[in-house]
Amino acid sequence: MTKPLIIAIDGPAASGKGTLARRLAAQYGLPHLDTGLTYRAVAHRLLQFGLPLENVSAAETAARQLDLGDMNREVLSQHAVGEAASKVAVMPSVRRILVDKQREFAAKGAVLDGRDIGTVVCPDASVKLYVTASPQVRARRRHDEMVAGGKDVSYETILADIERRDARDMGRADSPLKPAESAYLLDTSQMDIEAAFSAAKTIIDVRLSAENTI
Ligand SMILES: Nc1ncnc2c1ncn2[C@@H]1O[C@H](COP(=O)(O)OP(=O)(O)OP(=O)(O)O)[C@@H](O)[C@H]1O
Ligand SMILES: Nc1ccn([C@@H]2O[C@H](COP(=O)(O)O)[C@@H](O)[C@H]2O)c(=O)n1
């Protein structure tokens, strides 16, 4: 049986991994899962019921009840939900439940983006990318996106939020954000979306053709 094509994309907040993952999924005809949405959905559930984000058993229940096919991107994309998501994401039991669902999604081949795809969720992925950019560039992109969406928020606030989220995601004990050993590093600080896509596609095509000739 041939191995399913799994493309694992990790990186910090607003690095552009979701944009790349969507483009690559269309390019290679694969389903795409934004795993950040799964943590956001759990956090959003707690916020909806006025429960503290430290309530492990409520977070576990929300994770178990989560239907990957029923996540509302527009609601979950709110900036405050991202901050809350990084708090529930430190809970090992919640991670185990969500990782099982993410692996099930990936089983027949997919593009997944997140923080631990290459290291934990799909360690055997065909290609692993670690997409990054400086905190200032990421904050500028996120700020532009929010202003275009009609939000009144300062660049400084977004930069501080991004730095705090990086520290939490990289510093947690379970599944911290870090490049997988075999990941290709893609720093997009000086690249527009088109250039980042083209660089990622070249990396993947070279990797896949090398695999086919071994
Ligand atoms: N290379 C790039 N150059 C300029 N803008 C970009 C680039 N890549 C992505 N963007 C823009 O930056 C913003 C953040 O990108 P995106 O949502 O893909 O990041 P992300 O890493 O998935 O973020 P998050 O972790 O918060 O889900 C979006 O507005 C996107 O259009
Ligand atoms: N594989 C993942 C994906 C996400 N997280 C946590 O969720 C937060 C929100 O993610 P976004 O990509 O939607 O911004 C993120 O800050 C992480 O704390 C994760 O732990 N693992």
Describe this structure in words.
By secondary structure, the protein is α/β, with parallel strands linked by helices. The chain has a single domain, classed as Rossmann fold. Helix content is 57%, strand content 11%. The chain is built from ten helices and five strands; from the N terminus they run βαβαααααβαβααβα. It has helices at residues 17-28, 36-48, 56-65, 73-76, 79-88, 92-106, 117-121, 135-148, 155-171, 193-213; strands at 6-10, 32-34, 110-114, 127-132, 184-187. It has a five-stranded parallel beta sheet, with helices on both faces. Helix 1 (17-28) packs across helix 10, helix 2 (36-48) crosses helix 5 (79-88) and helix 8 packs across helix 9 (155-171). The mean pLDDT is 96. The structure holds adenosine-5'-triphosphate (ATP) and the ligand Nc1ccn([C@@H]2O[C@H](COP(=O)(O)O)[C@@H](O)[C@H]2O)c(=O)n1. Adenosine-5'-triphosphate is lined by residues 11, 13-19, 36, 82, 141-142, 145, 188, 191-193, 196.
Question: Which H/E pattern describes the elements?
Answer: EHEHHHHHEHEHHEH
Rg calculated over all Cα atoms: 17 Å
So what's the oligomer here? single chain
SS-derived structural category: alpha/beta
Mean pLDDT score, rounded?
Answer: 96
Q: Mind telling me the CATH superfamily name?
A: P-loop containing nucleotide triphosphate hydrolases
- Total DSSP E strands: 5
Determine and state the CATH class: Alpha Beta
Bound molecules: adenosine-5'-triphosphate, the ligand Nc1ccn([C@@H]2O[C@H](COP(=O)(O)O)[C@@H](O)[C@H]2O)c(=O)n1
Subcellular location: Cytoplasm
Domain Cytidylate kinase: 7-195
EC number: 2.7.4.25
Pfam families: Cytidylate_kin (PF02224)
